[in-house]
Amino acid sequence: MSNKRFLKIVFGLSILGALFVGSVNYVVDPYGIYKIDVFKNKPEQDKNIRLVKVVKVSEIKPTSISLGTSRTEYGYNPNHEYFSKPSYNLAVSGASLYENRLYLEHSIKQGNLKEVLLVTDWRMFNDPKMKKSFDFENSFHIENNYKYIFSVDLFKSSIRTILNQKTKSEYLENGQRDWNFNQGNIDKEGGHLKVMNKDEKDYYKKSTYKYNSNIYQDTKKSSFEDFRKILELCYENNIKLDIIFGPSHIRQWEAYDYYQDIETWYKWKKDVVLFVEKIANEQNQKPYRVMDFSVYHELTAEKVPTDPKEKMKYHWEASHYKKELGDIVLNRLLGVSSYKDFGVEVSSQNIDNHIRNLRDDRVKFIDTKAYRKGVFISRF
Amino acid sequence: MSRRLIIGAKLSLAIASIFFYGYWNYIYVPLIVVSMLVNYGVGISLVDSEKIRGISKKSILVFGIVFNLGLLGYFKYVDFFLENFNGIFGTDIPLPHIVLPIGISFFTFTQIAFLVDAYKKEAKEYSLINYMLFVTYFPHLLAGPILHHKEMMPQFANKFNFVKNYRNIALGLFIFSIGLFKKVVIADTFAVWANSGFDVATTLNLIEAWATSLSYTFQLYFDFSGYTDMAIGSSLLFNIKLPINFNSPYKALSIQDFWRRWHMTLSRFLRNYLYIPLGGNRRGKYRTYINLLVTFLLGGLWHGAGWTFIAWGALHGVALVIHRIWSELGFKLNTILAWFITFNFINITWVFFRAKEFGDAVKVLKAMFNVSNIVLPNFLEIRLSFLKKFGVGFEDWLGNIEPGGITEIAPHFLLAFVLVLFFKNSSEQLSRFRANYKTALFTVFLLSFGVLSLNKISEFLYFNF
Question: Which residue does chain B place closest to A96, by CA atoms?
């Protein structure tokens, strides 16, 4: 064979191969980003939920959304009456405040957004990674998705989509995480207590969160700058924003205290509250409501069963809670819950007093020494 | 062919190369241009030193070397130096955080070699345009191979190299495709596991630690040699042959053998311009050992500004000394044992090379030898449950590296071992190349798989954060 012919064959067949891969990807559309429904069930979406949720929001054009991290994904049901319809759970696992801000901007662009529930947690203000993929910003340019057509990664997903048509996606259509899967995980890992002990041991490690000062650990940028933008965007677009501290189990704060000192967590809450009022002042507007549900209460202090088969009512493990607890929070926000003592609306007026109460309650609700012995002293 | 056309061709290639360099960060374009012009000036003065009065030839050379090392020192080592200075003297000098200009380590070395040879009258008076092309020539600019002017300049001067040559284009495409595949398909796959083990995981069990270090060992080889293959391939499109840089390094049977196969153009540079000037092996046994150690300590530091690199260099230096003593004593090892020791030594020392901080290196190394933290695959639990009383666990055995577990990881490791140990390497493939259907299909596979892997879709699979 002549070298010239060799070159012709290589180039010709390579182009044909690329076209084949491209057409399979387009038709199967494993992430639902090309809106082709030949394969209706798309379990591969879970692996790229950050991208999928962008596309979904541009389809649904929601009036209300919830933002946050995996706690929000699990706990808050967009079909609850708290949310005006159409609504969407736009939280994603491990989202930093930066990522949340971009999701908010994207939702505003769709033109219908009126209400936002922001479930804050300390980790999104101090995230190890400001963004989880280097080209995160690109995922908001939906037209960019066409470049993935020529991608082996997407091709693998296409093949798996074809093969796994019986597998269900872990996400519901409204963006909430399907809780049935989590029950499976808890059972597989040996029950609530075992999972809790294991997760809390590493959750707030110093090596993961070196800087406890509301900066992203990798870029060292201030997360409060993104918080400012979120607040300003809501004011500018006449959006009703509720900010809450979520009702994780009280064990979580002991895990926090072990590595990070619980006083810094109180201070973070106070910073958030004061910052919200500061921005309101700048904007000549009423401050947005801030409610603290990470308080000491029978709901957040639910007893953890030692029997691996016994199910908890409100919590998965210390950080994630079930939708049953999320529903109570949403009812409280609506003012229709029977748990009138659950959650405290906080402002500069009462925050110091509130923090004092938290300190007092902590001693009453949990035995720090026993907790540490159970979680951090290594067991064989 | 007309002379003007040839000059035009060279000039456009040099300018395109500088554009390529500036595409990453145009701020550093002046840096490479200044470095090139100063070195060319110094080089010319050295070749023609008789005409220069008042300054000794040696001073010119010293100036040239100090200039090059000064640039490298400023851009690469200032932060490292200040950090240690602050640490030792308790001062608080702010670190300037200078961004390392890409390729500076490489063009510094190629040019020092040029100056030294000009001093020794081994370099000729080259034309400026050939020299520019030699320094900036894009295939080698970012990560080598470290070229030597003697092998490049005659090629740039040879007018037959300006004729379109289908044989070279086919060869170039062939080896480029191999390199692309090695880099984006193989190396990038291992990179994910190495990154999770080194940078993300806080603790590792024994198997995870070995998976981590081996992943990096494979990542580095396929990445770097893949890159070199692409450089050789793209250069062949211009009828220019670059030197080979890797010759199946993981087949090495001794540490000395390894350095004859790994990053060969660097070894060549260090030998000719550091080890031999230090005296090489001509000044007695002990001096030889010291020269080896110094060469490798500096070689380590050249790879990066950090104590982990120095530690890596020191370990290799010591290993070479031990190997030397061993062979002087006339011992010989069984081949398989020799390979096993060499490969493991390399694998273990790469841990220092990869770790961002000493702490990460210690984390991985400790875990590699911590027999009290063994976790086996859960499917073995039924048969081996008696091991539990020795502290062996059976759950989540690869969770920190690859949630998909053994079915994801094992085939890749097996394939990588087979490739590095039993296959002909890309330079050998190149020399056996024949244009036929088999090779064509092989190239199509590598090329299209490689190109279609460029569009990565980043997955984020950590659910519970």
Answer: B465
Q: In this predicted model, what pLDDT tens digit does every residue of A246-269 receive, in sequence order? A: 999 999 999 999 999 999 999 999
CA dihedral B212, B214, B215, B220 (to 10 degrees): 130
User: Among residues B303, B316, B323, B412, which one is catalytic?
Assistant: B303
Q: What secondary structure, in 3-state letters, does A217-268 show?
A: CCCCCEHHHHHHHHHHHHHHCCCEEEEEECCCCCHHHHHHHHHHCHHHHHHH
Alpha-carbon distance values, B425 to B143, B420, B444 (Å): 19, 8, 18
Whether B460 and A50 lie within 8 Å, measured CB to CB = yes
CA distance B314 to chain A (A): 28
Strands A87-89 and A64-67, how do they pair?
A: parallel
Q: State pLDDT tens for residues B290-346.
A: 999 999 999 999 888 889 999 999 999 999 999 999 888 888 888 999 999 999 999
Is there a catalytic annotation at residue B303? yes
DSSP secondary structure string for all residues of B188-206: HHHHHHHHIIIII-S---H
Nearest-angstrom CA–CA distance, B82 and B98: 12
Q: How far apart are CA A85 and CA A103, in angstroms?
A: 18
Q: Which domains does chain A have, with CATH numbers?
A: 1-60+134-167 (no CATH), 62-128+175-379 (3.40.50.1110)
Q: Measured between beta carbons, which residues in chain B are less than 8 angstroms from residue A51?
A: 457
Q: Model confidence over B208-222: pLDDT tens digits?
A: 889 899 999 999 999
B394, B395, B397, B464: best to mutate for the A interface, most A CBs within 10 A: B464
Residues 92-131, chain B: which have Cβ within 8 Å of A?
Answer: none
Kindly report the nearest CA distance between residue B442 and chain A, in angstroms.
9
Does B371 have pLDDT greater than 80? no
Cβ–Cβ < 8 Å for B455, A151:
yes
| Number of Cβ atoms within 10 Å of the Cβ of B307 | 18
State how far the Cα of B283 lies from the Cα of B291, in Å rounded to an integer. 10
User: Strand, coil or helix: what is A118?
Assistant: strand
Residue A65, H or E segment: strand A64-67
